[in-house]
Write a structure and sequence with these properties.
The chain has two domains: 29-181, no CATH class; 193-308, Glucose Permease (Domain IIA) (Distorted Sandwich). The longest helix has 82 residues, at 29-110. The chain is rod-shaped, with a radius of gyration of 54 Å. Strands 3, 6, 7, 8, 9, 10, 11, 12, 13 and 14 form a ten-stranded antiparallel β-sheet that branches. A two-stranded antiparallel ribbon has the order 1-2. It contains three helices and 14 strands. It has helices at 29-110, 124-131, 142-181; strands spanning 9-14, 22-27, 193-196, 199-202, 209-212, 215-218, 224-226, 231-238, 244-251, 254-264, 271-272, 277-281, 291-298, 301-303. A hairpin with a 6-residue loop joins strand 4 (199-202) and strand 5 (209-212). The protein is α+β, with helices and mostly antiparallel strands and 310 residues long. Bound molecules: zinc ion. Zinc ion is lined by residues 196, 212, 214, 216, 293.
Length: 310
């Protein structure tokens, strides 16, 4: 039997100055445990301190990054706003082009020319981008490119349209000249009752029928008689059965005659605009009472003036 070994123990002396010391008997593991605890506690503290420093550093970085993000976002918003304003400009330009084309077409129609179709009904830029399969990019990317396309396109359209406009101008002037010259409307203003139409009628002076080559308007003696289209006076004076009469040449194959006048206020060779006074209603020549005889000639033959009244 081996001698029983006593376990190692330490004695801790604690002495207050001037009094008897106190002793504590401690097992051997206690000082070791104290040392290990102390080391562990300071290690934990060091680790925690490091972590805190790291966290603070990360927080600062995060703050800086979020500030950068905010400023970028602001820039982006500004850019987008600017882009929107520009594309709105492009859109309004495009609408103006459409209006311009419509107006040119109205003029062309009046001038008897075929319509043109240069400006598409929808803005070309976004559609073209879609066809190319372009992926929408953040502001400043595809937006600017299609905007430039739209503006370039608008410039081309303006050129083409202004060329069409310069084409239409002479044709339109010719149309307006012809329209101003062609007999149109009544030779008497106000109340003008038709008393005899164009065509065969009973002879007002005798037996049988006769051909009446114009329209008779009943009107008071002295009522002003007005030319129904712009033209030049080719006859002004006595003209057989028409009595005092005026004949106006309108060009384009048209002439008009105003008969049975009581007075004539124009002379041969005079240029007249539509509505100018040529004389006054009377009953000169082969006439039974004050009235105006109105004849329209087209390429030398008498035509029914009814079709030229309105
Ligand atoms: Zn007549």
């Amino acid at each position: 039997m081996s001698p029983r070994r006593h376990p190692v123990r330490y004695t801790l002396w604690l002495a207050r100055t001037g009094s008897a010391p106190r002793t504590f008997s401690l097992p051997a593991w206690v000082p070791l445990a104290v040392v290990v605890l102390l080391l562990g506690w300071s290690g934990l503290n060091l680790w925690l301190w490091q972590r805190t420093a790291e966290m603070r550093h990360l927080q600062l970085q995060l703050l800086r990054l979020s500030e950068q993000a905010r400023s970028l976002n602001n820039q982006l918003a500004l850019e987008r706003e600017r882009n929107n304003a520009l594309s709105q400009d492009a859109q309004s330009l495009f609408k103006q082009l459409q209006v311009l084309e419509q107006e040119i077409n109205t003029l062309r129609e009046r001038a008897g020319m075929p319509k043109i179709k240069l400006v598409p009904t929808r803005s070309p830029a976004p559609d073209r981008a879609k066809e190319r399969g372009a992926v929408p990019e953040p502001a400043g990317g595809a937006g600017t490119a299609s905007l430039e396309n739209a503006l370039e396109y608008a410039g081309q359209q303006i050129e083409a349209l202004s060329q069409k406009l310069s084409e239409v101008s002479p044709a339109l002037q010719e149309t307006l000249r012809r329209e101003a010259a062609m007999p149109y409307g009544y030779p008497i203003r106000g109340l003008a009752r038709i008393t005899s139409h164009f065509g065969y009628r009973r002879n007002p002076f005798g037996w049988g029928f006769e051909f009446h080559n114009g329209i008779d308007f009943s009107a008071a003696y002295g009522t002003p008689v007005r030319v129904t289209g712009a033209g030049v006076v080719v006859e002004a004076g006595w003209k057989g059965p028409y009595g005092l009469a005026v004949v106006v040449d309108h060009g384009y194959g048209y002439r008009t005659l105003y008969g049975h006048l009581s007075s004539i206020s124009v002379r041969v060779g005079q240029r007249l605009e539509r509505g100018a006074r040529v004389g006054t209603v009377g009953s000169t020549g082969r006439s039974t009472g004050p009235h105006l005889h109105y004849t329209v000639f087209r390429r030398g033959s008498e035509v029914n003036p009814l079709g030229y009244l309105d």
